[in-house]
Structure to design on (397 residues):
């Protein structure tokens, strides 16, 4: 397969199982590199992993004089990062973006998909703080291989035992497949709610946060694509490794997309684009003293999704449909009307999929399938949607 996994081992009695995980991944043809916390070395020595992997084992931030920024090269190299076993403490540090040592610094810096297999005492696992940290990581798109129930090293019985080695290996292999699903693709994504100027200080806008579109751009980059994000979202940063183009209005977004569409192989329109824009923009701030303003003449904006679908050729074009009623039927009609390959339909009247939330529950509607996807974090959903888009592209060739 020619792929690399960075196995991050933390200080827990289950650390010895990381040796079996290493073997399992190697048997599948994966190159394994190991990074350990100082505490982990109290359970298994780096020499063991050095012998198993034939690679240097990374423990200390400063232990590689030939590479002064070791955590960044470690973070960039792997196709997937696997944290196994993950203690409650390391889970908390990762969830809060803390970077105390080489391992947590590397996990924070990586843009590769991350798989986490926690192991700890049942009380620590079930603690509200740990569960919140796990949910936070799931929302961010981390794959959590939940611990099993059983007899624990401390003598308690319950949830907390590291999941089976086979389960951890196969979930990591799945993540590896995802990490290269868009290799060679050039993905263009639109995100955020456009703003249509009325005058220099006022605009017509909508409630879109841009989180879904930015999550799609981040996922596409993690899946190996070259990504350009055309975004009207105000409060969202451009994901690492993604080319960002900031726009404001529907017309600017149309221009930015159409000028880049030729060089792309896939377009995902997640933006909430205004359908109408003021016919004219007042050059100065409108004031009541200028006279009563009771209406603003509007003109229709150009439909980016429909226009690009019209000339898409071999490209895959995916649109979104935010609806409040008759979700599937309306989305199917929209799919046919716009001429795209698939529509992701969400019911924005539901709290878990409303504008601005971190989760989304959607239907994937393409020519031959209408599937309801379970409610999940927007980052995890982004990976799922792109895997489906990648399958549509494979079908074309
Ligand atoms: N869209 C677009 N350009 C527009 C309007 C919409 O690219 N001018 C895209 C959105 O990014 C989304 C899809 O079209 O992917 C559906 O948007 P939506 O607002 O739900 O559809 P409309 O065409 O506006 O239909 P309606 O308002 O009748 O529901």
């Amino acid at each position: 397969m020619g792929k690399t996994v960075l196995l991050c081992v933390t200080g827990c009695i289950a650390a010895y199982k990381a040796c079996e995980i290493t073997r399992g991944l190697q048997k599948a043809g994966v190159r394994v590199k190991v990074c350990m916390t100082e505490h982990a070395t109290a359970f298994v020595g780096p020499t063991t992993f050095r012998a198993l992997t034939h690679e240097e084992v990374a423990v200390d931030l400063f232990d590689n004089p030939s590479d002064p920024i070791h955590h960044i090269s470690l973070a960039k190299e792997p196709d997937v990062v696997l944290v196994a076993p993950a203690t409650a403490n390391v889970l908390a540090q990762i969830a809060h973006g803390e970077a105390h040592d080489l391992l947590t610094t590397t996990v924070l810096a990586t843009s590769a998909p991350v798989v986490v297999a926690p192991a700890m005492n049942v009380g620590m696992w079930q603690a509200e703080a740990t569960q919140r940290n796990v949910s936070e990581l799931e929302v961010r798109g981390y794959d959590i291989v939940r611990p099993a129930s059983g007899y624990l090293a401390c003598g308690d019985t319950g949830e907390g035992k590291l999941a089976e080695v086979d389960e951890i290996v196969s979930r990591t292999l799945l993540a590896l497949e995802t990490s290269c699903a868009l290799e060679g693709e050039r993905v263009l994504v639109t995100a955020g709610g456009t703003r249509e100027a009325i005058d220099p200080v006022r605009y017509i806008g909508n409630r879109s946060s841009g989180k879904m579109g930015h999550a799609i751009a981040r996922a596409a980059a993690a899946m190996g694509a070259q990504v350009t994000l055309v975004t009207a979202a105000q409060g969202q940063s451009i994901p690492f490794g993604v080319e960002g183009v900031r726009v404001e209005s529907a017309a600017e977004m149309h221009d930015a997309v159409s000028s880049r569409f030729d060089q792309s192989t896939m377009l995902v329109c997640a933006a909430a684009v205004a359908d109408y824009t003021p016919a004219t923009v007042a050059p100065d701030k409108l004031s009541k003293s200028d006279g009563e303003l009771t209406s603003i003449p509007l003109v229709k904006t150009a439909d980016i999704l429909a226009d690009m679908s019209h000339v898409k050729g071999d490209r895959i074009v995916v649109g979104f449909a935010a609806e409040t009623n008759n979700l599937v039927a309306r989305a199917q009609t929209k799919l046919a009307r716009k001429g795209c390959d698939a529509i992701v339909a969400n019911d924005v009247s539901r709290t878990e999929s409303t504008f601005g939330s971190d989760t989304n529950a959607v239907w994937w509607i393409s020519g031959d399938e209408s599937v309801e996807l379970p409610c999940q974090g927007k980052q995890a959903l982004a990976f799922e949607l792109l895997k489906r888009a990648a399958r549509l592209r494979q079908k074309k060739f």
About this structure: The chain has a mean pLDDT of 94. The pocket of cytidine-5'-triphosphate is lined by residues 190, 250, 269, 271, 273, 275, 301, 303-305, 319-322, 334 (CB under 6 Å). The longest strand covers residues 316-323.
